[in-house]
């Protein structure tokens, strides 16, 4: 049960970070595009790894890889939040972000599925440690 709550937190953190990063487009917010693309690429790599994972070791490895990448991405998202505080109040990503916004929505749907798969191994010490590493990366 503890793992279920942890995975839920992970999904919420990833989704919240994604929405924050995604709330920009061309023009004024053009510097957000690389952050969103990197987030999407990292998320897709994680999802693909999780879809192939058949055991706790593979799940832990995927979570650890995600945590490592998210440390860098989170720093970029934090900088964008600081630079554009008005983004927190936007409810939808602007049209200028186009394909990356659509890609992010598709990835978030797939993320829910793979996180359910991760729960199968939630009691494994390696998975629990990897989950903690990811949560730390998102702080």
Description:
- The chain is mainly α and 139 residues long.
- It has one domain.
- Helices cover 74% and strands 0% of the residues.
- The model is unreliable at 15-26 (pLDDT under 50).
- Helix 1 runs antiparallel to helix 4 (99-119), helix 1 packs parallel to helix 5 (125-137) and helix 2 runs parallel beside helix 4 (99-119).
- The radius of gyration is 15 Å and the shape is elongated.
- The two termini are 22 Å apart.
- The chain has five helices and no strands.
- The protein has helices spanning 2-22, 33-52, 56-83, 99-119, 125-137.
- 33% of the residues are buried.
Looking at the structure, what is the overall shape? elongated
Mean pLDDT: 80
Number of strands: 0
End-to-end gap: 22 Å
* Category by helix and strand content: mainly alpha
Query: What is the number of helical segments per DSSP (H or I, 4+ residues)?
Result: 5
What is the radius of gyration computed over CA atoms, rounded to a whole number of angstroms? 15 Å
Helix content: over 70%
Question: How can the largest sheet be summarized?
Answer: none
The portion of residues forming beta strands comes to under 5%
| Number of structural domains | 1
Q: Low-confidence stretches at least 5 residues in length (pLDDT < 50)?
A: 15-26
Series of H and E elements:
HHHHH
Quick gist of this model?
This protein is mainly α and 139 residues long. It is built from 5 helices and no strands.
């Amino acid at each position: 049960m503890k793992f279920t709550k942890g995975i839920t937190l992970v999904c919420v953190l990833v989704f919240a970070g994604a929405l924050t990063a995604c709330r920009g487009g061309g023009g004024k917010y053009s510097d957000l595009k690389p952050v969103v693309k990197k987030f999407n690429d990292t998320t897709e790599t994680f999802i693909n790894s999780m879809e192939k994972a058949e055991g706790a070791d593979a799940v832990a490895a995927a979570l650890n890889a995600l945590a490592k990448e998210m440390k860098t991405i989170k720093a970029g998202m934090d900088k964008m939040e600081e630079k554009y505080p008005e983004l927190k109040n936007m409810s939808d990503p602007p049209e200028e972000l186009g394909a990356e916004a659509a890609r992010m929505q598709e990835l978030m749907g797939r993320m829910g599925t793979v996180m359910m798969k991760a729960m199968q191994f939630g009691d494994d010490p390696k998975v629990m440690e990897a989950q903690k590493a990811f949560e730390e990366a998102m702080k």
